[in-house]
Amino acid sequence: MSRQSVSVTRPSAPEDGHPPAPGRAAGAGGLPRPVVRLGRSATPYTFVSPFFLLFAAFGLFPLIYTAWVSLHDWNLLSSENPFIGLENYGELFADGYFWNAAFNTLSVGLLSAIPQLALALVLAHLLNRPLRAQTMWRITLLLPNVTSVVAVVVIFSQLFGREFGLVNLVLGVFGVDPVNWQADVASSHIAIALMIMWRWTGYNALIYLAAMQAVPRELYEAATIDGASGARQLRRITIPMIRPTIIFTVIVTTIGSMQIIAEPLLFGAQVSNGASVTGGTDRQFQTLALYLYEKGFRSFEFGYASAAAWVMFLLVILVVGVNYLVVRRMRGGLE
Amino acid sequence: MGTPRLSTAHRMNKITRLAAPMIAATLLTLTAACGGGGGGTSTQSDGSGGSAEKIKLTVALFGDFGFKPLYEEFKKTHPNVEIEERQAAFADHHTNLATHLATGAGTADVEAIEVGYISQFTAQPDRFTDLKQFGLERRQSDYLDWKWQQGLAPNGALIGLGTDVGGLAMCYRTDLFEQAGLPTGREEVSALWPTWEQYIEIGKKFAAAAPKDAKFFDSPGEIMRAMIAQAPVGVYDAQDNIVVGTNPDIKKAWDLSVQMIDAGLSAKIGAFTPEWNTGFAKGTFATVICPAWMTAYIQDQAKNSAGKWDIATVPGGAGNSGGSHLTVPKQSKHPKEAAELIDLLTSAESQAAVFKATGNFPSIPSLYGQTDIQNFTKDFFNDAPVGKIYSDAAANLKPQHLGPREGDVRTAIGNGLGRVEQGRQTPDEAWAQVLKDVGDIK
């Protein structure tokens, strides 16, 4: 950008490098020139500052303070919290339960995210055509998402109940033995993934639908004339055209998956009080966030929990980065 | 770019230049106001006591303690005091208390603490009001000595006054016992199982003759907890060392619990889960460990089975499970009124009234002999003389030292039994993992 264009967009800025003489030109409101200049250059920053101030107070400060806490033997109830350097991190990396939680998080995340996004894509594709009662269909998609997570998990947990659950009742009709859903790693992960899918599939479908509406009709018309089927149009036109949206949903879903806590916590409450924070008797479905909660808010070991939080933060960045690269490399047919 | 547009831009610039800082300032003020507003639990007035100044006391409990009529009583002598009760779930309540204490804001004026947590909190006497300041040490002679001791800090400060004790008994379904060909009278049933070994034998008899979908007990977690409570030393020794691995009584309780699982006596339904609640109503299990406070819970969960439950003595002798203390955190702005409220809520008359209303059994031994307690029965439990049953249970109690991390140790043990029950591990593997988990608790 040339100096000229700057002076066009900011008409009263000094044209040369000379320091303006005080009082030489009483600018707007009769203020001295430096003040006016300061005000002018500060205005945009003032405008965006509320977000950054709030972020600093509620995002950045906790982040840094958590790092500080993680370097201490910090018990919530004790009055002395000695500095212990990186000891918490060493202990954490040696803790099999932490890695177990990391595995569970990844497993539940994959089990829920992939079918969820694929299903959302198909749903959006089906809805992206003239339909009767369009609004009703779209609202229906969002309904599971506005339901409270507690209500969803409590109801699903009852469906998955071992003794009196509906799922086992139906399985029994087909001669399948009742499944103790909380007892095994695979069954518990599937149950939790289903709860997550129930809540988020419709939400993602709506986002896809919005993106699909922006895809030019002509492409579909041309494809139809060429004899391309609906599935082929989805694969060859829709997906490549809405790829930025897909990347967005993949990242948001990944972040969401890394933070799953309410589902396993309430699902475990079906087994016993104690198995609730441990995510099952054998930590079959304890996620990272739940592990953090157990350490921080049941054992009150805040230093250790803070270390876990930081490692979790880095893991989220890592997984999101990998996902981003993978999805970006997926080439659609149009390019 | 034409001149008129320029001047518009200029004017806009002028307005926004003034507005932006104002908006920012407003936002900041709002933020500050939000931050400051969260903590207050009481009115602004400083606790000067006695005077007609309006005071609001908050009482934080887990579940219903049956205190509501007592608040009215308190207002008679303290017309200026308004009382607000907050209830939360068991674990959430204690987590909230810990975080509120740590952050220095948000506690109620009176906070209940369950016995499993009490020594974790009494270890921090500087965060609580020493109730001796308000003369409450005079209450010592009222109490069961061990209950009184539990409310003391290591430095001698009086942190909490006891409410109830959880003397153990065994609740059982008379209809299921009858179908299994067992005696149903509470005296005869009590005579069936003086020891846990005999309890298992009766269980096997029950399993052989009972309806297919009824098991002998709910799950071994609470039973093992009861067996530990009956031992002279529990999971902690007197010096606060965890002795799970070395205390033979714990291993014996574990082995007995495993035997019960192996015999197929367990309905495999964890205590305080939704399926447990359903199980009460449906009669899925025939016996359940029954500390005094549990009677109210059963009555609530199994409304339609009134008269089908009865209460016998527990195998293995007396023991305590549960019970609470009331404390005043340092944060309270009205510690004097809060202490006076605790004095009233824990008085002999109040504890007797609470017992009759809810089933929570008093920690004041002079009440146990009183005829109105001795003769108190509950029709839900087939007119069982609950007053007499729990008086006997409480009078025979041997005190047991509880350590700071009782809850976490119990969780580790309970999860171990759960793994055996779910068939994930052999009893030996599960026990080894319990010892490892318990070893990680500091």
Tell me what you see in this structure.
- The complex is a heterodimer of chains A (335) and B (442).
- By secondary structure, chain A is mostly helical.
- In chain A, 69% of the residues lie in helices and 0% in strands.
- Mean pLDDT of chain A is 86; it is low at 1-28.
- With 442 residues, chain B is α/β, with parallel strands linked by helices.
- Chain B folds into 2 domains: 55-165 and 324-358, 3-Layer(aba) Sandwich (D-Maltodextrin-Binding Protein, domain 2); 167-321 and 381-439, D-Maltodextrin-Binding Protein, domain 2 (3-Layer(aba) Sandwich), CATH 3.40.190.10.
- Chain B is 47% helix and 12% strand.
- Chain B is built from 18 helices and 10 strands.
- In chain B, the strands form 2 sheets. A 6-stranded mixed beta sheet of chain B has the order 2-1-3-9-4-10, with helices on both faces.
- In chain B, helix 9 (220-230) packs antiparallel against helix 10 (248-262) and helix 17 (406-421) runs antiparallel to helix 18 (427-439).
- The longest helix of chain B is centred in the N-terminal third of the chain and has 35 residues, at 3-37.
- The interface between A and B is large, with 47 and 60 residues.
Strand content of chain B: 5-15%
Write down the Rg of chain B: 27 Å
Give me the CATH fold name of the largest domain in chain B. D-Maltodextrin-Binding Protein, domain 2
The CATH architecture classification of the largest domain in chain A is Orthogonal Bundle
Q: Which value, in Å, is the CA radius of gyration of chain A? A: 27 Å
Oligomer: heterodimer
The number of distinct β-strands of chain A equals 0
Q: Which CATH architecture of the largest domain in chain B? A: 3-Layer(aba) Sandwich
Q: In this structure, how is the largest beta sheet of chain B organized?
A: 6 strands, mixed
Number of continuous helical runs of chain A: 15
What is the H level of CATH, i.e. the homologous superfamily of the largest domain in chain A?
MetI-like
In whole angstroms, how far apart are the ends of chain A? 33 Å
On the 0 to 100 scale, the average pLDDT of chain B is 88
Q: What is the total number of structural domains of chain B?
A: 2
- Measured between the Cα atoms of the first and last residue of chain B, the distance is 73 Å
Q: Give the uncertain stretches of chain A in residue-range form.
A: 1-28
